[in-house]
């Protein structure tokens, strides 16, 4: 229980743990039709959630939030991140010459082929740090609801793609 206070107080939790690091490959486009070469990052995710205190005096349980977020970052770890909503990047399923399930990715006259099981297809228009932050935040809100947590009034997700370059997404309550 929150004790009495003579001041207005607001509450938040912040989680920024090494467990929220994931290493993944991607490429983005910019300036309309310029497509980066394939490369990787050691991404690091942090979140802050605002909300009211529950009967435990928690905004959200650290443990439930940590476990839900690390499950999401683990899904992305050691994977090729592919956007399924990009207007110029094609992502098609195929069977490879050796019979394996593959994803054939195209951009103009460029073509990449990846083992399907080593990719994560994301419903985003570009795998920028900002849009990864939004996808992670939306997934986290669903996972928290499934665990019976009260939705935060605001969730801020930060995705740091290379030690100091951070995409931020702020999600309000819908
Ligand atoms: N606002 C954003 N800007 C950029 C993003 C982004 O997600 N949001 N992403 C990129 C590229 O992905 C690019 O890989 C990042 O830039 P860069 O510094 O070149 O990354 P490196 O890992 O190669 O870092 P080095 O220090 O150069 O080794 C661009 N902009």
Automatic annotation (TrEMBL):
Cross-referenced Pfam families:
PTPS
| Domain of life the protein comes from | Bacteria
Organism of provenance: Botrimarina colliarenosi
Catalytic activity annotation: 7,8-dihydroneopterin 3'-triphosphate + H2O = 6-carboxy-5,6,7,8-tetrahydropterin + triphosphate + acetaldehyde + 2 H(+)
Which cofactor names does the annotation list? Zn(2+)
Spell out the PANTHER family in the cross-references.
6-PYRUVOYL TETRAHYDROBIOPTERIN SYNTHASE, PYRUVOYL TETRAHYDROBIOPTERIN SYNTHASE
Pathway membership, UniProt: Purine metabolism; 7-cyano-7-deazaguanine biosynthesis
Q: What is this protein called?
A: 6-carboxy-5,6,7,8-tetrahydropterin synthase
EC numbers listed for it are 4.1.2.50
List the keywords (alphabetical): Lyase, Metal-binding, Zinc
Q: Which residues form a coiled coil?
A: none
Q: Which SUPFAM superfamilies match?
A: Tetrahydrobiopterin biosynthesis enzymes-like (SSF55620)
Record-stated family: Belongs to the PTPS family. QueD subfamily.
Offer an example of a GO molecular function term for this protein.
6-carboxytetrahydropterin synthase activity
Listed InterPro entries: 6-PTP_synth/QueD, 6-PTP_synth/QueD_sf
């Amino acid at each position: 229980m929150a004790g009495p206070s003579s001041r207005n107080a607001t509450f938040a939790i912040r989680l920024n743990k090494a467990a929220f690091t994931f290493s993944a490959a991607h490429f983005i486009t910019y300036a309309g039709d310029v497509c980066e070469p394939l490369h990787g990052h050691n991404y690091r995710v942090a979140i802050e959630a605002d909300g009211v205190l529950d009967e435990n005096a928690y905004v959200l349980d650290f443990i439930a939030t940590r476990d839900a977020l690390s499950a999401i970052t683990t899904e992305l770890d050691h994977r090729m991140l592919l956007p399924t909503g990009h207007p110029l990047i094609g992502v098609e399923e195929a069977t490879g010459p050796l019979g394996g399930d593959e994803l054939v990715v195209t951009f103009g006259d460029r073509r990449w082929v990846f083992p399907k099981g080593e990719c994560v297809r994301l419903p985003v228009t570009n795998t920028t740090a900002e849009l990864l932050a939004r996808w992670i935040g939306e997934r986290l809100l669903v996972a928290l609801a499934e665990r019976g947590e009260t939705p935060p009034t605001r969730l801020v997700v930060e995705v740091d793609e290379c030690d100091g370059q951070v995409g931020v997404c702020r999600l309000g309550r819908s």
